[in-house]
Amino acid sequence: MKIIGIDIGGANTKLASADGEIIELHYIPLWKDTTLPTSLRDIAEELKPDKVSVVMTGELADCFEDKDKGIDFIMRSVNDAFDCEVKYIDNSGRFHEDSGRPA
After folding, report:
1. S-S: 71 plus which of 1, 18, 59, 78, CB 3.0-4.6 Å?
2. Are 51 and 40 in contact (CB under 8 A)?
3. pTM recorded for the entire structure
4. pLDDT digits (tens, 9 = 90+) for 24-52
């Protein structure tokens, strides 16, 4: 089973597999006509993970009207890209389903 962790920041998206075999850094600046949705689809197609866990700080990038708009954009991009179980980790370390909303 391939489990991938993704950290989506304002400029860089980092990912790593649970087994340590995959460690990648992708420069995807959210404020510059972002390629995040396409890049995540490419990553999903290449890696074909069974599960994905996501943390984010990119929702605070100044290209978003507010934090909620940033969260919505990032979650939609992730959910559209991956055809597997997706969970989000909030700032307290709790997991949330992709149909839910991180606090």
Report:
1. 59
2. no
3. 0.89
4. 999 999 998 789 999 999 999 999 999 99
1-31 pLDDT, tens digit per residue, is: 999 999 999 999 999 999 999 999 999 999 9
CA 55 to chain centre: 6
DSSP-derived 3-state class of residue 102:
coil
Exposure class string for 4-19: b at 16+ Cβ within 10 A, else e: bbbbbbbeebebbeee
Amino acid at site 74: I
Could you please report the per-residue DSSP string of 30-65?
A: TTTT--HHHHHHHHHHHH--SEEEEEESGGGSTTSS
Q: Compute φ and ψ for 7, nearest 5 degrees.
A: -115, 110
Domains annotated on the chain, with CATH: 3-87 (3.30.420.40)
| Three-class secondary structure of residue 93 per DSSP | coil
